[in-house]
Predict the structure.
Amino acid sequence: MNKLISNIISYLNYLNSDCKLNVSVHFNKSVFGLIPRKIVSMILPYNNHTNAYCVMAKNIDHHKCLLNQKYLLAKCQEGKPFCYSCHAAVYEYIYPICKDNCAVGFIAVSGYRQKSPIEYNIIDYDLWKNVLNEKMPLSLCNSVIPPLSIMIEQMLLTCLKERDNEYNLILQYLNEYHTNITLSDLAKHFNRSKSHISHLFKKENGMTIRAYCNKLKLEDAKKLLLKTDISITEIALNVGFNDTSYFIYLFKNRFGISPLQYQKANK
C-alpha cells in the first residue's frame, strides 16, 4: 500500500511538473470519509485547482464551485471521460474514478479556456485570458490520465474502511470552505459541539482550526501573488483576511518575506 500511494503522489507530481498539466483529484463525501488519515494528508494538496483564476473564482462564489462538483460527480456515473466548462468559464477534462462500477470521484485537468465562452460568467477577463491556456491537450490527457485513475481505484479497493472518519471529513470541509469558516459553522455542519470539533482537530492535526485555515489561505495568496498584479490589500481580502496588516504579518512569519517581496521576487 505504501508503495502504491508513493507511486500515485510521484505520478501526480510528474503530471503537474513535467507534463505541465493542472491535475486535481476529487472524491465524494462518503468515500473521502473512509480513506485512512495518513493517505488523506498526502492526497489533500491535490484536491484543489491551483491556478490563480480558479482560486479567485472559488473565493468569490464558492457555492457555484461546489454545485459544479456535484454535477460532475453525477455526470461521471456515465463512466466516460468528458470535457466541461464551469460557471467561471474554465474548461476542464474530467475522468471518472470508480469503485464497484459506480463513480465515487473524478480526476480533473483544469486551467483551459475556450475562444468564445459568451454564455459563461468570466469573473476577471484579464486574469482569465492571461492565466488559462486556450488549447486543451486532449491527446495527452487521454494517454496519461487513465493510468492515474487505475492506481487510485486500486488504492480505494485496498484501503477503504467500514466506518466514517470524522477528522477526514472535517479536513475536506476546511479544504473547501477555509476562506470564511468559523468553529460555529463547523459545529453546526457536523452536528457536534465546538469543543468536540476543536479538540478532535487539534489532537489529530497538531494545529488549531484557525491556524490550519490561515495556512490554507496563505497558500491561496501565494498563487494570486504569482499570477496577478492586484494590490496586497485586494489579495488579502480575496483569500479571507479582513486585516491586511495581519495578513502581511502571517505571510512573513510563514515564508520569511513579505507578500510584496515575494511578488517582486517571482515576477
